[in-house]
Write a structure and sequence with these properties.
By secondary structure, the chain is of the alpha/beta class. It has helices at 15-29, 43-49, 67-72, 78-84, 89-103, 153-171; strands spanning 33-37, 58-63, 107-113, 127-134, 141-148. The chain is 40% helix and 20% strand. It has a 5-stranded mixed β-sheet, sandwiched between helices. It is globular.
């Protein structure tokens, strides 16, 4: 399920180009998308909705910045969160599945991680998990990626948005 950890998100293409590519690909395939975001605080949805025509394919998103909202809104298993925290592959996958379900989308992207400046739950800033889910029967097709990013808080958040958008493109290839 997981790709190898990426040392950094590739610097190009830029976030705007990636978002435009995602919207274009979704329109071509007649798919809809939703987001479930923690570390980015809605940045992925904001990047997508900057693209003209996004309203044809963007269903919406969940900003689950608080741990409790990952459980209450996205449906992440509360026992899992209690035992293992929220900075992990399983949480990212459940967030993506939750966005598919709750937003009625055919594609969902989720992110959870630490932007810094301080560590969280034993994870250093730049430790990020991404998941992309595509509706399929009997269960969604899932792609995950673990990023180890560097830089300040803003740089980590920007790189997370770019990495998430790139993953959506990768999943739709």
């Amino acid at each position: 399920m997981s790709d190898h950890p990426d040392p950094a998100v590739p610097p190009s293409p830029g976030v705007q180009d990636l978002a435009a590519g995602v919207i274009g690909r979704l329109v071509e395939r007649d798919l809809t998308i939703a987001t479930c975001e923690s570390i980015t605080g809605g940045g992925i949805a904001a990047a997508l909705t900057e693209v003209p025509g996004a309203s044809a394919v963007v269903r919406g998103g969940l900003v689950t910045y608080a741990t409790a909202l990952k459980v209450d809104l996205a449906g992440v298993d509360a026992d899992w969160v209690q035992r293992y925290g929220v900075i992990n592959e399983t949480t990212a996958v459940e967030m993506a599945r939750g966005a598919l379900d709750r937003c009625g989308a055919l594609v969902a992207v989720a992110c959870t991680g630490v932007a810094g400046p301080d560590p969280q739950d034993g994870h250093e800033p730049g430790d990020v998990w991404l998941a992309v889910a595509m509706h399929a029967e009997p269960q969604p097709a899932i792609l995950t990626r673990h990023l180890r990013l560097s830089g300040d808080r803003a740089a980590i958040r920007r790189a997370t948005v770019a990495g998430a958008l790139q993953m959506v493109l990768d999943q739709m290839r």
